[in-house]
Amino acid sequence: MSKKFLFFYVFCASTILCFVGCKGEVVDEYTTHVASFRFDFQYGHTQSYLYPALNSTNYFCFFSTNPIQGGYDLVTEAYGTKEKNVEHITEAVLTKSGRALGLNNGLIAGRSSFQNGELYVFDRQCPNCFNETNTKNFTLNFKDASSVYCNSCKRTYGLLNGGVVVAGGKEANEKLLRYRATYSGTYFQISNP
Q1: What are the backbone dihedrals phi and psi of residue 128, each rounded to the nearest 5 degrees, phi first?
Q2: N or C: the chain end with fewer CB closer than 10 Å?
Q3: Cα separations (Å) of 39 from 4, 74, 146?
Q4: Three state DSSP letters for 71-118
Q5: What is the mean predicted confidence (pLDDT) over 12-31?
Q6: What is the pLDDT of residues 127-183, one digit of tens each?
Q7: Spatial CA neighbour of 121 closest among 159, 166, 80, 68
Q8: Does position 26 have pLDDT exceeding 50, yes or no?
Q9: Burial grade of 148 (CB within 10 A; 0-12, 13-18, 19 or more)
């Protein structure tokens, strides 16, 4: 076998492995679970923890919505804060695109300086516990400013590196469920299938 052929064969095999998971499935960066949210910052609301999470790096927050009469409460929480921030918002701010916020009305948003400021929006449910039990009772909490922790399976997920398990993992480790999201400086939108 010639060296050129061997090099070509190794190159092709390694390229295919980069795009194929262990189970023979194509690896996708984003989950197929539904999430739909559009928030308009032109109406203010820059006091929520969501605003700095979208506009700076290495700052993440949890967020969810709760229906109230005449609108919604946007509930945000960040690492190191003593209390949750609750803002009353109207339907105009949410722009009627839906409010399906992940598996159990809880998402994590922020940007990573390790990935050139890439915007990450993760589900707040532990993906490993969800896959093992098919229940939505495994809410993640901050372990520190750049990781979240599951009290059930004891896994820690890194927020700056794409949501991979950084501690406490077993043989099968799913990374955090990631949703497609964009932020223009005014509009923050999540639109996952």
Answers
A1: -70, -45
A2: N
A3: 54, 10, 24
A4: EEEEEEEECCCCCCEEEEECHHHHCCCCCECCCCCCEEEEEEHHHCCE
A5: 50
A6: 999 999 999 999 999 999 999 999 999 999 999 999 999 999 776 689 999 999 999
A7: 159
A8: no
A9: buried
**Tokens 């006091």 identify what position?**
47
Rounded to two decimals, the pTM is 0.82
CA end-to-end distance (rounded Å), the chain: 47
**What pLDDT score was predicted for residue 184?**
94
SS3 readout for the chain: CCHHHHHHHHHHHHHHHHHECCCCCECCCCCCCCEEEEEEHHHCCCCCCHHHHHHCCCEEEEEEEEEECCEEEEEEEECCCCCCEEEEECHHHHCCCCCECCCCCCEEEEEEHHHCCEEEEEECECHHHHHHHCCCCCECEEEECCEEECCCCCCEEECCCCCCEEECCCCCCCCCCECCEEECCCEEEEEEC
Nearest partner of 129 among 147, 103, 105, judged by Cα:
103
Phi, psi angles (nearest 5°) of residue 110: 170, 175
Task: Summarize pLDDT for 28-61 with one digit per residue, the tens.
Answer: 789 998 888 888 888 777 788 999 999 999 999 9
Which residues face 156 on adjacent strands?
Answer: 149, 167
Cα distances from 184 to residues 8, 44, 170, in angstroms, run 42, 15, 38
